[in-house]
Amino acid sequence: MARSFLYAWEGLVYAWRVQRNFRLEAYLGLLALLLALWLGVDPVPVLLLIALVLSLELLNTALEALTDLASPVYHPLAKRAKDTAAAAVFLASLLALSIGLHLFLPPLLRKLGLI
Ligand SMILES: Nc1ncnc2c1ncn2[C@@H]1O[C@H](COP(=O)(O)OP(=O)(O)OP(=O)(O)O)[C@@H](O)[C@H]1O
């Protein structure tokens, strides 16, 4: 059990070290969480969206590694695998952005006295 956590931790550290997008998404997630706390917005949907995006980014990273292992040289199927995995992260990020705007915009504008 403890060993499984250690391996998962190693995967997390690897993704953090090599994936600039993973770091960027983690920082943006932290920013969104702090914003939610500041604005008094329910942090649960924010946490769920952060988990969704980061988890998909981790799966994307895993799939990239597997694709590089299976096909180090150009192959149209490798391209399909990588592009489709990247599309999953893109869709989740778009969803997170839309819901983030929906959650944050009204209280933010109120806080700034603009409405
Ligand atoms: N072996 C391959 N065969 C065919 N196309 C590939 C292959 N490797 C990469 N590609 C193409 O290049 C794109 C970028 O691949 P890359 O491995 O650099 O991943 P990435 O999306 O840039 O991720 P990251 O920047 O996180 O490494 C892929 O989405 C795919 O379209």
Automatic annotation (TrEMBL):
Enzyme kind, highest EC tier: transferase
Co-factor remark: Mn(2+), Zn(2+), Cd(2+) and Co(2+) support activity to lesser extents.
Any single biological process term in GO: phospholipid biosynthetic process
Recorded GO CC terms: plasma membrane
GO molecular function: ATP binding; ATP-dependent diacylglycerol kinase activity; metal ion binding
Keyword entries, A-Z: ATP-binding, Cell membrane, Kinase, Lipid biosynthesis, Lipid metabolism, Magnesium, Membrane, Metal-binding, Nucleotide-binding, Phospholipid biosynthesis, Phospholipid metabolism, Transferase, Transmembrane, Transmembrane helix
EC number: 2.7.1.107
Primary localisation category: membrane
Cofactor(s) required for function per UniProt: Mg(2+)
Active site positions, chain numbering: 57
One protein family per Pfam: DAGK_prokar
TM segment ranges: 21-40, 46-63, 84-105
Binding locations of ATP: 7, 64, 82-83
The protein's name in its UniProt record: Diacylglycerol kinase
Species for this entry: Thermus aquaticus
